[in-house]
Amino acid sequence: MSSVRRLVLTASPAGAPGPAGTPEGVPEGAERVAADGLVGWRFLSDAWAAAPDPGPGWAALTLPEDATANPHPLVVTDVDSTLIQQEVIELLAAHAGREAEVAEVTERAMRGELDFAQSLHARVEALAGLPVGVVEEVVDAVRPTDGALELIAAVHAAGGRVCAVSGGFTSVLAPLAAAWGLHAYCANELEAADGRLTGRVVGTVVDRAAKAAMLRAWAADAGVAETAVVAVGDGANDIDLLTAAGCGVALCAKPALREHADVVLDVPSFTPLRWLLGL
């Protein structure tokens, strides 16, 4: 994480009083907040969703210089509850009637209370016996987070890359990557035999260390310094990912991750990140 002051973007409850005035270059419906070494903007209710693009000058307020100076951005993002709105393993577990128990383990893992690899193996066991066809149903049920596809398109238009690294599964991420225009991706492999999931993953689990390693590999491939990479995540297993990047973004994140981020987005959208990148 860089030494710049952290930016916090948050949404106030509906009906909160509006700001006395909106500073130049800041979206309408936002007010500046600064305390305890943090600087940011509080969006009133859902004002962030309808706010106009504030322009590239806004980025200079907050992001590390390397992140905004790079003419070809490299964004590396987590997938579940970050790039997409859902947790894929919970969608799969719903087909086995075990969504609630899997969701409880996922929540504990994202808070950093459980070892991620061990928790993944335990959750995947709940999928044993499911027909492989449920994966396609889950792909159809996945929804991108607000502004995610627009960010991908804007980064591509600038000659940059968006890559996704996930503790989820390749069989779900691969078709999404193709449809949404991701440059590269990395996830776990679900084992299947005789047309059914075995309840196991193949190979090494994509954990927090693996996520950071993929960021470094993608930065090297793009010829971009790690300090110029923007990483986005939501849970404890994204800590290494954010700290490996020049700018770490916590999106509606668990407390375990927030303290490691340069930018804390408490609005469920990639749109403010696109603003910050000047795209």
Describe the structure.
The chain has helices at 47-50, 65-69, 79-83, 88-94, 99-110, 116-125, 133-141, 148-157, 170-180, 208-222, 239-244, 255-258, 271-276; strands at 6-12, 30-35, 38-44, 74-77, 161-169, 184-193, 196-202, 229-233, 247-251, 263-265. The chain has 279 residues and is an alpha/beta fold. The protein folds into 2 domains: 6-86 and 141-276, 3-Layer(aba) Sandwich (Rossmann fold), CATH 3.40.50.1000; 88-140, DNA polymerase, domain 1. β2 (30-35) and β3 form a beta hairpin. α5 (99-110) runs antiparallel to α6 and α7 (133-141) packs across α9. The radius of gyration is 19 Å and the shape is globular. The chain starts with 5 loop residues before the first strand and ends with a helix. Mean pLDDT is 83; it is low at 1-5 and 12-25.
In short:
By secondary structure, the chain is α/β, with parallel strands linked by helices. The protein is built from 13 helices and 10 strands. The chain folds into 2 domains: 217 residues, 3-Layer(aba) Sandwich (Rossmann fold), CATH 3.40.50; 53 residues, Phosphoserine phosphatase, domain 2 (DNA polymerase, domain 1), CATH 1.10.150.
Radius of gyration: 19 Å
Query: How many β-strand runs?
Result: 10
Low-confidence stretches: 1-5, 12-25
Please trace the helix and strand order, writing H or E for each element.
EEEHHEHHHHHHEHEEHEHEHEH
| Domains, number | 2
Residue share in helices?
25-40%
Largest sheet features: 10 strands, mixed
- CATH classification class of the largest domain: Alpha Beta
Q: Approximately how much beta-strand content do the residues carry?
A: 15-25%
Task: Assign an overall shape.
Answer: globular
User: In the CATH hierarchy, what is the superfamily of the largest domain?
Assistant: HAD superfamily/HAD-like
| Class derived from helix and strand content | alpha/beta
Number of helices: 13
Q: What do the pLDDT scores average to?
A: 83
Record the strand order, biggest sheet.
2-3-1-10-9-8-4-5-6-7
